[in-house]
């Protein structure tokens, strides 16, 4: 029998048109491009309009045998997507009726016009059809089309060894109908990103969490998500939790043709959550032809069992850590502590504890004398538990940087990047270290690499601007700061960097506007208030700057205020004695921003002063 030629045409049922060539569904000026399996399910049902098509017939015609285990979930997803596109309902069907435990029936009458391939596709919305003889579309015609698509389904090609695939894990949907469980779906997303990112970094790049969080809710089509993230594959998922059991459904989509490559559901106890993550990782690797080493295969085959309460506390910690606010980081630290109390061998929770203490100190919320020893102990414990963890070594490196232990910090950063060259935070933090050391070209390389790995992460984008600012490249800092503000006008740190850069080029009106906006968004954090005072001083508003100094001195009686910020204000006022008084106080108290002293442009006029040179020597910095 001769192979059927690929037909083209329009199938009509009610107010809908099914375009066989473009593989689209049209309704009243709206175009929906159906994914591969939903489209072919609809085509087969339409071809047998009025008849029952069994689930087995659907499987044999559409699903290849190698994904038989995922067929039930895949068919259910396909039917749901078709019904969603048609505005249909399983309870009161107008188009697709479910025949219980048997199959499906297409209810609406169909008609259409076959087109010659040279005439299609025509521009949607102004479509003209030269052949105006309407005929009933026969089942033979549609079955010929279906036979073509079934027999000519494009194979998923194996990537050449030199070509790297890019995967984006989209935020998992929370199906528990409980807003208080939102942390669980968010935490599972982050854990899957981390797990998949360790598969084979030379062949697979997994986009970091900060760049996928904006797609939460699933309102943006997969094709657009793939284009924006330059991703080859998307992993979508949903999670439903009831007590200590979870049901997780995942789906892998190939972006270029929106093919559903694989779908699976898992129903497990919470303590076995790592079993699910490892199963998903193996399946993804298999589907996109990522070769795993023997060591990776062994690790995935022997997942560690978790104590449910410890795991829940850990992902709550990550949920609040990602807010990057003082309140969020403090809550996160409490949850990470709960996790290690429940499970003393939970290395990732110790890393989280260290990161919280470091973050609270850098942002000026906690005293270094109080926070950094705790951060150091937690990071050392994380490394002890898992010496091969890039996250643990990066957390330790960050603490050592804040403690001004320069050689040890660089050694740990390099170790982290050797273990995982695609860990965005390691590049992000290492770039900050290199800036502080005055190695600006290297710092920009690391900052840009972090941004490549996590392109929509607001903090990483802001710190690219900080790299330019500390290198005294203010125009570039402003350009990058504006890019970040465009992504989120309410991200305080981006306004901070913009304002600081405007101060240095003498645009006083713009600097005050940005810094006051940042201070407001930060809840008037002392770190931000100090920079507002610097802007006032640079603009010649001495009284306004001193008023903020008094405000900060008052706040310091209740909570930690970094003396480094006060030194910056007096430097902008060109008060030499007060500047060195507060720099000495900052040195004695090991204020973490002292690491920027060699490159901070606020102190440029003081660099020739012998007291300044002496401070740099004591800090182990180039003079």
Word description of this protein:
The protein has 623 residues and is of the alpha+beta class. Among the domains are: 8-151, Winged helix-like DNA-binding domain superfamily/Winged helix DNA-binding domain (Arc Repressor Mutant, subunit A); 165-301, Rossmann fold (3-Layer(aba) Sandwich), CATH 3.40.50; 306-416, Serine Threonine Protein Phosphatase 5, Tetratricopeptide repeat, CATH 1.25.40.10. Helix content is 53%, strand content 12%. It has 26 helices and 14 strands. The chain has helices spanning 36-47, 55-62, 71-86, 139-151, 182-197, 209-212, 222-229, 273-287, 294-301, 308-321, 326-342, 347-362, 368-385, 390-402, 406-419, 424-436, 440-453, 458-470, 474-487, 492-504, 508-521, 526-538, 542-555, 563-572, 576-588, 610-618, and strands at residues 8-13, 16-19, 24-27, 30-33, 52-54, 96-99, 103-106, 111-115, 165-169, 173-174, 204-206, 233-242, 245-254, 259-269. Strands 9, 10, 11, 12, 13 and 14 form a six-stranded mixed beta sheet that branches. Strands 4-3-2-1-8 form a five-stranded antiparallel beta sheet, with no helix packed on it. A hairpin with a 4-residue loop joins strand 13 (245-254) and strand 14 (259-269). Helix 12 (347-362) packs parallel to helix 14 (390-402). It is elongated. The termini are far apart. Mean pLDDT is 82; it is low at 1-8, 65-69 and 113-162.
């Amino acid at each position: 029998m001769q192979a059927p030629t690929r037909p083209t045409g329009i199938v009509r049922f009610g107010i809908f048109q099914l375009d066989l060539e473009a593989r689209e569904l049209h309704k009243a000026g709206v175009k929906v491009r159906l994914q591969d399996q939903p489209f072919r399910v609809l085509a087969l049902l339409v071809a047998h309009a009025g008849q029952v098509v069994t689930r087995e017939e659907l499987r044999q015609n559409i699903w290849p045998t190698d994904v038989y285990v995922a067929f039930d979930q895949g068919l259910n997803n396909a039917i749901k997507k078709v019904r969603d596109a048609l505005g249909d309902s399983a309870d009161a069907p107008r188009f697709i009726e479910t025949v219980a435990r048997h199959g499906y029936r297409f209810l609406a009458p169909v008609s259409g016009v076959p087109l010659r391939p040279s005439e299609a596709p025509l521009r949607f919305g102004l479509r003209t059809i030269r052949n105006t003889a309407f005929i009933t579309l026969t089942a033979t015609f549609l079955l010929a089309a279906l036979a073509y698509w079934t027999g000519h389904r494009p194979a998923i090609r194996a990537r050449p060894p030199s070509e790297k695939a890019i995967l984006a894990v989209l935020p998992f949907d929370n199906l528990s109908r409980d807003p208080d469980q939102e942390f669980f779906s968010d935490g599972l997303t982050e854990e899957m990103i981390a797990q998949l990112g360790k598969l084979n970094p030379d062949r697979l790049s997994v986009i970091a969490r900060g760049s996928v969080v904006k797609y939460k809710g699933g309102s943006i089509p997969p094709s657009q998500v793939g284009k924006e993230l330059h991703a080859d594959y998307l992993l979508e998922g949903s999670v439903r939790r009831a007590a200590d059991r979870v049901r997780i459904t995942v789906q892998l989509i190939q972006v270029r043709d929106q093919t559903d490559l694989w779908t699976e559901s898992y129903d497990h106890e919470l303590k076995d959550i790592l079993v699910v993550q490892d199963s998903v990782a193996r399946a993804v690797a298999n589907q996109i032809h990522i070769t795993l080493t023997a060591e990776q295969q062994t690790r995935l085959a022997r997942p560690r069992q978790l104590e449910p309460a410890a795991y829940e506390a850990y992902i709550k910690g990550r949920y609040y850590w990602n807010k990057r606010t003082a309140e969020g980081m403090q809550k996160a630290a409490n949850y990470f502590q709960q996790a290690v109390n429940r499970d003393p061998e939970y290395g990732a929770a110790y890393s989280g504890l260290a990161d919280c203490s470091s973050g609270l100190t850098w942002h000026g919320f906690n005293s270094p004398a109080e926070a950094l020893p705790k951060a150091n102990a937690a990071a050392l414990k994380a490394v002890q538990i898992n010496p091969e963890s890039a996250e643990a070594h990066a957390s330790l490196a960050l603490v050592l940087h804040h403690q001004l232990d320069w050689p040890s910090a660089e050694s740990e950063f390099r170790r982290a990047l050797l273990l995982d060259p695609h860990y965005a935070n390691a590049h992000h933090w290492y770039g900050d270290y290199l800036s502080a050391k005055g190695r600006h070209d290297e710092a920009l390389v690391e900052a840009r690499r972090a941004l490549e790995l996590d392109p929509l992460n607001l903090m990483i984008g802001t710190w690219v601007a900080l790299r330019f600012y500390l290198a005294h490249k203010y125009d570039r800092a402003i350009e990058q700061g504006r890019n970040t503000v465009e992504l989120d006008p309410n991200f305080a740190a981006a306004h901070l960097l913009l304002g600081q850069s405007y101060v240095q080029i003498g645009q006083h009106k713009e600097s005050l506007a940005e810094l006051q906006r940042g201070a407001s968004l930060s809840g008037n954090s002392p770190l931000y208030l100090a920079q507002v005072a610097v802007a006032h001083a640079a603009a010649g508003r001495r009284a306004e700057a001193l008023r903020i100094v008094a405000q900060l001195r008052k706040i310091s009686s209740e909570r930690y205020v970094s003396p480094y910020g006060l030194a910056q204000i007096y430097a902008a006022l060109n008060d030499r004695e007060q500047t060195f008084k507060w720099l000495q106080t900052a040195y004695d108290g090991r204020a973490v921003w002292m690491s920027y002293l060699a490159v901070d442009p606020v102190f440029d006029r003081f660099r020739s002063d012998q007291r300044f040179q002496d401070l740099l020597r004591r800090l182990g910095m180039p003079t």
